[in-house]
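Dear colleagues,

I hope this message finds you well. In preparation for our joint manuscript, I am sending the non-specific serine/threonine protein kinase (Mollisia scopiformis) sequence together with its predicted structure, so that both groups work from identical material. I would be grateful if you could confirm receipt.
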Amino acid sequence: MEIVTACQDVLEDAAQAKAAGKVLPSLEEERAAHEAALAKEVEARKAEENKKKELEHLEEQRIQDTMIQDELKRRKERVQESRRKNRPPPQVVSQTSIDTSVNGQAPHETLAFEQPISLMDTHNNQIIFQVVAGKICLRKGPTSKNFTVRPVVAQGAGDIPILVLKQTNLDTEVKDSNKFKSQLQLLESELKSLKTIRHQNILEMLDYKVHKTIDEDGESDTSWTVSVLTEFAEKGSLQEFLDIVGSLGVEKVRSWTIELLEALRFLHEKGIIHEDIHAGNVLLVRSSNGEVKPKLADAGYQNKLHALSGRKQPTDTISVAKSAYWLPPEIANSSQLQYTQKTDIWDFGIMFLQMMFGLTVVQKYSAPSALTDSLALSDSLNELVLKMFKTDPKKRPRAVELGPSEFLATDAPILEDDNEHSASPSKFGSVSSLLPITPRRQRRESMTVTSPFPRSRYMEDFVEEGRLGKGGFGEVVKARKRLDGQIYAIKKITQKSSASLTEVLKEVRLLSQLAHPAVVRYYNTWTEEVFDGSENDEDNTSTEVGTVEDSVSELSPGHDSDVDVGASSRGLDFMSSLGPQIEFGYDSDEEVDEDDEESDDELDDTSSLGEPAHNGITSPVKRGLVQKRTRSNSRYLRPYKTILYISMEYCEKQTLRDLIKRGLYKDSDEIWRLFRQILEGLAHIHGLNVVHRDLKPENVFIDAASNVKIGDFGLATSGQYTMADKASSAAAHISGDMTRSIGTAFYVAPEVKSTVAGTYTSKVDMYSLGIIFFEMCFRPLIPGMDRAIVGESLRHKNPTFPNEFKVSEKPIQADIMLSLMNHNAKNRPSSSELLKSGKLPVQMESETIRQALIGLTDAKSPYYDKMMKALFSLPSSQAKDYAWEMGAQHPTANDLLLQSIVKQKLVSIFRHHGAVETPRTILFPRSDHYGPNAVQLLDERGAILQLPYDLTLPFARAIAKHEPAVERSFAFGRVFRDRDSGGQPQTFGEVDFDIVSTDTLDLALKEAEVIKVLDEIVGNFPALTTTQMCFHVNHSDLLDLVFDFCRIEPTIRQAVADTLSKLNVQSWTWAKIRTELRSPLIGVSAPSVDDLQRFDFRDTPNKAFTKLKTLFEGGDTFQRASSTIAHLRDVIEYTKRFGVRSKIYVTPLGSLNEKFCKGGVIFSCLFDRKVKDVFAAGGRYDSLIREHRYKSGTHSEPRHAVGFNLAWEKMARLPKASAKGFLKKPEEEVNGIWTTKRCDVLVASHDATILRTSGVEIVQTLWNNEISAELARDSRSPEDLLSQYRNDHHSWIVIIKQDSVLKVKSMDRKDVDDADIPSHQLLAWLKSEIRDRDQRNGTHQRARLQRGSSQQDTSAAEHEQDVRVLVAGTKSKKSNRRNIVEQAQARAASVVHEFLDGPIAAIETTDQVMELIRATKLSDPEGWRQVTHAVPTTERRYIGEIHDLMNTLANQNKDTTRNAFVYNFRTGKCIYYDLGA
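The corresponding structure tokens are as follows:
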């Protein structure tokens, strides 16, 4: 119906249009119009798409250009950054620039240090200087003088601080002996280490200098001075301060003692013993904030200075007056003083007492024990003093162990009587007045004076939410901080004795150093005094404190304390289970033994100045101390008690013990994850020199995120732990029964369990970890016999696993366990070693990036190959691709042509010595012989390779592994240097000449031949012959003997040799070399540098060897050098026989390429001018071959090789870059074989058709006749042609005109007009012109080079011809004799070569007839008739034929040559015949 309606509508429209007189288009017309519209639309759409594509292409091109510009910009920035890093330090005022006439500073009143010194002024601005001046004597001692000085800086540098210069003159009779210099070298080494130390309580050493003494008469030749520059202590020394004030207040004593102990600990950890601690060596320095800080000075080196100066160590009047009992017992009766860290502690104790009681304390009391007997010291102070003055140095604590002492950490008084606590000890009067002892009341840390009770920081800041655990000396609670709302674990410890607080403070000190995700975090510590209602407190575990024995027994770490598990939380039990610490419990089905046994027979080891008493006999000092402590214990009955709060990280969940009980052994992945975290935590702990000593599953906490947190450092110690010091503690520690559910002895290392005296380290934790790891991988052990049996088998010297533990299923775990449970601690792996061992599976969690780096560098990693493939599958950057070659220099055509000529000449020289060109490897494994600018590559298998840095190493690698094909060889190749900016590496052309042998016969002869080859190269190149050249020769063994004589340490010898290789080359003077040798990177001592300078000479061999004998006097060094010197004499003698023209010098410090030439000759060829430069270098590199030789058990034939490296491409630039000689006479120097013409003839035409037809034919003809030619580009006019080829230096330009007429332009000679020549005469014309040109320039030498480059040229013409130059009376323009000789030889050679172009008539006759023919001329027929009549009749016709043949040859060669030869093939005789005569 719709179709009908549509048709009806169409018909109606047609009827209406017809009625209106309109004509409707036909169906075909409508279709055509529709198709046209569609085509137009398609065309428009296509045009739009093309425009869009064009815009996209333009945008892509713009982005690409931007990327390329960005890449080039990055390169430029890298270059600038590299230049910035290598930029010399800011200009400092040097000593030579100081105007002495203005400043009035004599040379001896200033001092220049070897390196620039940087410090900050009062406004925190950097000051850089190198010279100090303005010396004013501050104080003078028996050996040293202290001066105040000021840095010499540029004007406007700001406030210049005052510094102190300490100078010690070492003016002794044996100052030049090797022993003295060795001691001086050791002193300098110690000063070097002290210079790098930075600590807020150690006087900063800015720099030092060991130098020859400088006085009014100038520099001494024999005396030495040690100058040390330090910061200025404007407040003087502690001794001066105490001399004025008498003594210090107790709080100042505490703060300064803590700071100085920290400084001493820092020194000891760096391996430095102070050796001279006294009040005079503690200087008071005002810091920038106005606070006065005490600083230790003169650490370590003061005694050495006294020894070197030959004087006894100075002692002040106080030291002289003190009793011998004040000396450390270990050195009191020793003739040879051996200072240790424990000696420093004794000396520190004396200074500590002087701060409290005045300098005269060592005069008032005969010994430390006399002081403790006479004064009623408080318990905590008495304990600290007894520790410092233990007579057995092994039992004397270290500085790190003194820091947590109760006296230093609390406000404990000095004396028992609190009233005298506020009085100055200097006002106490006589010692006898101090003896009466009255009980003191409990001290308080009062927060306010108005309230009867002190304000509690804990109650104000925290809301307690429940108890986590409880022990004998306190508890651990869960508390929320009001300010931030976070949950913390608060350990509350009640002080019951000085020993308990000391142990707790030690734990706090250790915790404060730790910061790692796998270690429980420590936040804060503080103390409070609260009302003591302990008599009625059911939570308190002990109320009876009567005697010191009771107190000590409570401190014994061998007994467990009472533990109550908190009911409000099943989280962390933060209680220590050992000793005075709080026990850490956890939710468990087993009951914990709550026996609180007391040990009545233990003696406190810290309460005696000597050895502990035995058999019940107590020393008077011991009895006095017990009485005092008995009285002091009354303080616990006072209504106040001290509580120590430790705020720590709260672990919400559980311990590792809980996981083990729940079947951790079933989840292998979880075991490895937790084990790795434990290892990482231990690596951090051990890295800080801390040993946990109580590692067990109960002390490994698991937080809410199931991550490890190692905690409970109650038994931790710093560094090595001495068994002898803690015998009773160790015994108690392991006394637990292994059948208990949580037995600490189960995890104790064998060396701890042993009662033998000794030391143990962090390896004890690793043993415990081995047991823990077994428990993690095994079913939970049943308390009782199961645990005892398994534990006993594991703890055997050869551990055995239970039958249930399938080693075959867990081989890696078993291997780790056995290594950790090794009874030899040295064989146990450390935590860091185990992490790097590759035994742990790869962890792909939060440490993905770190593990990726480990996997990338560890070939044993299972992901190694995958990562390498992914790395090499990365798409290349298009911008970097395009920018790769940008910035690289490219040679011109003339450069390339000259290089080819130079190469041909070098090949000719090498071939004369029978050398054959051999290839060199261009890719090989990376070598450690090169620096960072070697080009290194990485292949898909992860091997690190490198491109050649030189051609010697790849050749040494080749002949080390394969039989050399020839004895003499040479090689041309490319060597590479990395660019700091990235992109294409720098490349240089190098040529090597080498002689290889398999025996040691005539090694000196071969070394001399190599030098001879270099000398021939010098003599065959014009730019080298006009420059004075010389050879520097040395031997690696001789250099080593010089290093031995100068006491150069073996570890830095290679760096020293590398630096000396630059000596006297370019701008490297001795002053610059000295600065580099003395820099921290190398660190050669001043006496050694001074001795090295004596060997900085070059001389003829005989004179040089005589000088060496003089310098080596006083030892057997010259005798040891006799073989080396004899070998050098042989080499030099052979060079004379070879006729080496260049001068040869011996240089004892010559070390270029010494790293390759160990045990062999070293030589270099230099430009012998004011500013020297190296032309070539080489030597015997047998050691390099041995280094790469396969170390097999079978006997292999040795290889010996000597050769040189030459940057031959630089020689091709010499005529251009050479200086005045070439510039003055360019027309002379460019002649000869070094003329750089790429092509002789240029064939051109202004008609393109003729150029491509006739031009091609002409070029082909010239090529066939060995004339170099090329076809020109299209040109419109002669001017256009010349502009295109102006710089190509063609000799002739042939322009093809119409009718085969050629116009030839001579480009070499401006005085010759253009010639029009028919095309058939061009060849003969060019040959004649070339011959004339060669006669003028002597360039036939080049042709012979080209012919002889591939085969040895044995012609006599190659030998040097004798040229006698006779100069006229008037000076010739060509007065350069060498140029005249060379050109004469070249012209003679070209004339001889011209003869070879003549024809040859080969005839058969007698030699008598040949002589008759020689006398004839073609222009004289009578001469030929005489020859005809002189021969028999049968031969007369043959003579006529010869005559006709000669006439024919004359006519044929009329325009080319007149030279011919007649050869008698019957006898072999040949004569010359002139066809033009």
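For the figure legend, we might mention the following. Residues 911 and 1352 are 6 Å apart (CA to CA). The longest strand covers residues 126-140.

With kind regards,
E.M.
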